[in-house]
Amino acid sequence: MRNCVKKLVLSLHLFSVIILSAQHLDAKATILKRINEPEFQNRVFSVIDYGAIADGITNAKPAFDQAIQECKQAGGGKVEVPKGNYFLEGPLHLESHLNLELQEGAVLKFSSNPESYPLVLTSWEGTILYNYSPFIYAYQKENIAITGKGIIDGESSDTFATWHPLQKEDQLRSREMNHNSIPFEERQFGKGHYLRPQLIQFFDCKTILIEDVSIEDSPFWCVHLLKCENAILRGVKYDAQNKNNDGIDLEYSRDILIENIRFNNNDDNVAIKAGRDHEGRAMQMPSENIVVRNCAFKGLHALVIGSEMSSGVRNVFVENCTYAGYVKRGVYLKSNPDRGGEISDIFIKNVEFGEVLDCFMITSNYHNEGFGFPSTINNINLSNVKCEKANNYGIYLKGYNKKPIRNINLNRFKVKETGRNPFVDFAEEVMFKTVKLNGETIKWNAEKLKQNPPDEYDY
Length: 459
Hints:
Elements: H1 2-34, E1 44-46, E2 55-59, H2 61-74, E3 77-81, E4 84-88, E5 92-93, E6 98-102, E7 106-110, E8 119-124, E9 127-132, E10 136-139, E11 142-147, E12 151-153, H3 168-179, E13 200-203, E14 206-211, E15 214-216, E16 223-226, E17 229-234, E18 237-239, E19 248-251, E20 254-259, E21 270-273, H4 277-283, E22 287-293, E23 296-297, E24 301-305, E25 313-323, E26 329-334, E27 342-356, E28 358-363, E29 376-393, E30 395-398, E31 405-420, E32 423-425, E33 427-437, E34 440-441, H5 446-449
Parallel strand pairs: 1-3, 2-4, 3-6, 4-7, 5-10, 6-11, 7-12, 10-13, 11-14, 12-15, 13-16, 14-17, 15-18, 16-19, 17-20, 19-21, 20-22, 21-24, 22-25, 23-25, 24-26, 25-27, 26-28, 27-29, 28-30, 29-31, 30-32, 31-33
Antiparallel strand pairs: 8-9, 33-34
């Protein structure tokens, strides 16, 4: 009788998974229909016509700024950057209805002088504050693009990137401001502080396109969409090897398409976030309706959700992706009991990895810290996910003792070689269907899979 009940429960769970998956395929199609590319007036403003000298030495920023303003005053168009090396003594602040086109052979190289970057409203690791301007920045703009086969070079490996060991005091100060709800205008960093700026940031912008450019040597995160809506990131290539050189960070953003990206960056490839702790929960602005497809992963982690996700992350679709090299973790969902919020309705399909440390990992206790606000992690679905080798775990799923993770579904999940048996703890409604590790089919058995990992696991 007990076995019959178990079989009935499993059948009902499987049926609900099938129905839910079908519903979310419809949701993905609806999302894609909403996402539109920006359109621009047929006007061209060449930076050469405004005095830019492409010798890599002369400051071209005044010419770029003038071309941007002329484009704005004319009602929009293309700011054209012909082949050549352009040195910029400070950031570019983009305007609405503008396409910054970097033609093939064009290289932007940015100044290493912090005093050339004014303070702007931005965010840092999930906390809104004033800091050095991102090198390319747009605030409350719409219908905006960066396109072309040129290169955006942050020139930061010997300058801003060296601030990483100096940032701890400011990092902790920013978090205290978050926890104490200090007004934004009082959160002033910049000179005398060591929070590195992002390379490209769109803040509170709509209808965005970043296409085909190459990104190198970023000071911090490479591309950061903060409170943005309706964006396409397509065909971008990376060679960004500094600390915290995340490829794409989505924060409080919705209706996003990421496709045909070739990653090679020294941190997360795609990181989906939604604010930190008190501020994130108060914002009530989840990152949602995100499609990632046809990408090649290489770097630290391929797809990450969290750890700053206090407003929630939902409706994420990742499909038809492969690898360009090693990543530490393939699919990585992370939170802790400081965050709150929810990660739900995540669908990952037809994805391959080569060698990794861990293939699929969820932790509700990131860095083994925090209390009072455990996160909800629910309805996570992986289908036809393959990995050649996981040096550590093929599957590591650890919820929080007061709030288990729920409804975790693996269907056709295969890791040819793993260093450890799978580990699952504080998890409910887990389904394994055709799960193979080291050539062995793994059946769902809560007690068998609950083994003792190291007390201090390297998250």
